[in-house]
Amino acid sequence: MRVAKECGFGFGRIxxxxxxxxxxxxxxxxxxxxxxxxxxxxKPSKHNMPWxxxxxxxxxxxxxxxxxxxxxxxxxxxxxxxxLFFIHVKSRRVIASTSTIHPxxxxxxxxxxxxxxxAREQGMNQPSILIRDGDxxxxxxxxxxxxxxxxEAKQIPRGTPVMNAHAERWVRSIKHECLNNFICFxxxxxxxxxxxxxxxxxxxxxxxxxxxxxxxxxxxxPPRSGKIVCKTRLGGVxxxxxxxxx
Length: 246
Known about the structure:
Oligomer: single chain
Strand order of the largest sheet: 3-2-1-4-5
Helix content: 25-40%
CATH superfamily of the largest domain: Ribonuclease H-like superfamily/Ribonuclease H
CATH topology of the largest domain: Nucleotidyltransferase, domain 5
Order of helices and strands: HHHHEEEHEHEHHEE
Number of strands: 7
Structural class: alpha/beta
Radius of gyration: 23 Å
Number of domains: 2
C-alpha cells in the first residue's frame, strides 16, 4: 500500500519491491487483493501522479506561463495591454514579454522564441515542459515553436488555477507590489515598470518559497559591517536594504 501510494506503481511493478527486502512468498494476486481491499486500484497509473510530485520530478526544466493585463491610457483612449510571462518553477526566475494591445498569433510565436532564447542566455536547463491554461491565445504556432525546441506545452484542466499556482502568485506579486500603484500612459511606460520590477524581483527581493533567498545572489558575499541603506526604485514604490562596505 505504501509503495502504491508513494510511487504509483502497478501490481506487477510492486511485486519486485518485497523481494528486495527479503520477502519472497508474495504473489501478484495477493498484491492485487490487498490494494483492492484498501481502495487502491485497479492499477495505479503513471498519469495519476500527485501534482506536487509531478512538479518536484520535473522542477529543473519545468516552466509555467500566463498573461496579466493592465489598462493603458493613450491619446486614442484607454486600452488593455497584455504581458506574457514565463516562470521557472524551481528557481522562481521570470522571463516577461514586452506588452501589446494585440496579442495575435505572430506575436505569440515570437514570444515563444524569445522565451527559449532567454532561458538559454541565462544558463537555465532546456525547458522541457511548459504549463499553461486554456487561453485560446496559446495557438498552434505558439506550440510549434516550443515543440521544435523539445518543449511540450501542457494545458491544465479548466477551473484549476491551483495547478498553475506559481504563475498566479507572481501576477499577484507584481500587481500588488508595483503595478497597482501606477496609471500607465503607454505600452513603453508599462514595459519600464515591468523591467524595473523584474530587476528588483530577481536581485533584491527575498523569496519565502526558496528559503528567503535571492533568486540571483550577489557575486560576492555582502559586507558584515557598515551602514545599512535603503535602495528605492520607481519613486520609492519598491524598496530593498543592503549594507554599504565599510
